[in-house]
Amino acid sequence: MTANATRVLVLNSGSSSVKYQLLDMRDGARLAVGLVERIGEETSRLAHTPLATGGDKREREARIADHEEALKAVADELAADGLGLDSPELAAIGHRVVHGGLKFTEPTVIDDAVLKEIERLVPVAPLHNPANITGIRTAQALRPDLPQVAVFDTAFHTTMPEHAARYAIDVETADAHRIRRYGFHGTSHAYVSRKTAELLGKAPEDVNVIVLHLGNGASASAVAGGRCVDTSMGLTPLEGLVMGTRSGDIDPAVVFHLKRVAGMDADEIDVLLNKKSGLIGLCGDNDMREIRRRIDEGDQRAALAFDIYIHRLKKYIGAYSAVLGRVDAVAFTAGVGENAAPVREAAVKGLEELGLAVDADLNSVRSDEARLISPEYARVAVAVVPTDEELEIANQTYALVSN
């Protein structure tokens, strides 16, 4: 790597989308951001913002057949701003990979063996790993000479002790089929727990934090001294909190009941629990803003959905307070966590005996900055910390290739 190679392109390849950011690692500045969505559909959309030049956001709609075509379109947009993939300033491409199993506990330079292992994990991440693999292969074809780095959602959670990671099922069966709790949103939990410690003026190893990543997908983690000791998602992202379209925790016998009584097959139940449950299953909406609007108008289904969502949040705050023993902060992050003041207020209300409280005025402030929203007398700090998974991926990628 040359001395002037200070840029990292971060790619997050979904099943029908590619999110990307180009960052300069000298100061973490974003040079360009964008999104390609509806890949493979009749009309795809590419939105690109060249932040380095201060240019306006560019959008175009046309069919983009596959990820290869999508990444070539991204490369063209970057080149138009003088930020092309052929630039000698590009040090590496960092890829978000959802599932790394137990093998990948840190960022990893991608070679054939690494790709093969990511493919081997497809059965436990069938919606995510295939798209991640496609993005990696396409990027490799565009820049075969450039280091490609995988940063795994599961890596941060590999520090969980066995008593937290194991399910109470037959050990031989679990080991044979890699059934255990892996956790997800790891880059977000790592970033937010570290930023929360900074907000408190302490080192991460001196702080115990409960991180609540609340987006359409939602997860909680208990982080002791910078290390994850428990998290709400499990073998898949279905376990844990109530989410936008996922049920979260549910009696596993519900699956057997639906098969026997409703005649549903495995695929139908999978779709029900992952795409037709959670908030959208409870009230028909998975947008918290819309749910709050409906509650204000007296909608009882929306109110019940909100109450169920908050009830599950409180259970995890209480459980992780017990797991950690001492809690220094509870941090809210992601779309709902950062922007929905009523969610933060309701989640903490009634937990004063745990040292938690929210200041109404501080909680109502809208800001892109990390901030405390608890009153000075609160024993446990309550924070809002905007997550930055792309910066975390870029930092981990650059640190690896620099060394």
* Helix-strand topology string: EEEEEHEEHHEHHHEEEHHHHHEHHHEEH
Coarse morphology: globular
Gyration radius, in Å:
21 Å
Strand residues, percent:
15-25%
> How do the strands line up in the largest sheet?
5-4-3-2-1-6-8-7
Mean pLDDT: 94
**What ranges have pLDDT less than 50 throughout 5 or more consecutive residues?**
none
Helix- and strand-based class? alpha/beta
Compact description:
The chain is of the alpha/beta class and 403 residues long. The protein has helices at residues 67-80, 112-120, 129-142, 162-165, 171-176, 186-199, 253-261, 266-275, 278-283, 288-296, 300-324, 334-339, 341-348, 360-364, 389-402; strands at residues 7-13, 17-24, 29-37, 44-49, 58-62, 90-97, 108-109, 148-152, 208-214, 218-224, 227-231, 329-333, 371-372, 381-384.
Explain what you see.
This protein is an alpha/beta fold. It has helices at 67-80, 112-120, 129-142, 162-165, 171-176, 186-199, 253-261, 266-275, 278-283, 288-296, 300-324, 334-339, 341-348, 360-364, 389-402; strands at 7-13, 17-24, 29-37, 44-49, 58-62, 90-97, 108-109, 148-152, 208-214, 218-224, 227-231, 329-333, 371-372, 381-384. β2 and β3 (29-37) form a beta hairpin. The model has no long low-confidence stretch (mean pLDDT 94).
